[in-house]
Write a structure and sequence with these properties.
Blueprint: E1 4-10, H1 24-41, H2 46-50, E2 54-65, E3 74-84, E4 89-96, E5 102-114, E6 120-121, H3 125-128, E7 155-158, H4 175-183, H5 187-192, E8 193-202, E9 213-219, E10 226-235, E11 238-249
Antiparallel strand pairs: 1-3, 2-5, 2-8, 3-4, 4-5, 5-6, 7-9, 8-11, 9-10, 10-11
Amino acid sequence: MGIKYTEDHRVTYYEGDTKDQMTLAMLINVAILVSEHQNDALGIGNDYIHEFGAGWVVTQYNLEITRMPRVDETVTFGTEATGFNKYFCYRDYWAQDAAGNRLATIHSIWVLMSFETRKMIAVIPEIVTKYETASVKGVKHFPRISRIDAAKEVATQNYRVRYFDIDGNQHVNNAHYFDWMFDHLGFDFCNEHDIATVNIRYEREVKYGELPESRYQFAETTDAGSVTSLHQIINNGKRCAEAEVVWTKHEA
């Protein structure tokens, strides 16, 4: 394991939804911000990494959520680099309340992307050694994501990529994928359900001006207390991201 880093964060009203809970996109954004602050403290912030002509890109998240942080609640966010191999780096995040109860756990896989080729490059030792984490053999695998069944009804909605959707890596910020995936589930569904688990994998970039299609389908489940939704983001006929999300009924 590597160096742990934590920060307190008070959830603001603009990070919340109609239930006064932090949105998933904002949860991810704050977690990433905390890891960026750790990078800065270790002297390997974005400016340093850009000197190598590269930037960090996430390829997969696996999230377990006990409950979302609430608006005006002060939450401790933490992060730790947990290992790396030739191409992949593994990082965990967590959020806990003032009593120390774990609210959310996020496992993630990252790669370095060349700005010139837009392709993955090998891990740079000068960067990863700063985390004081160990090299690992093989590739860590997250749970398999169930695929949408094309033979059954699929809901679709297109979203145009706007200028403010683009981040410093010159592609859509990964948190926006959650907005596209969940938006057309509808107000009533999102208002009446909470997220329990998320497994999302990113496969291709989406860029400014493109018109990706968000697809979703509810999966059959034997658990009467939960609902599972399957999602895909399709652009120019190619899958850019897919996710499997388990929801539970919201309790006020």
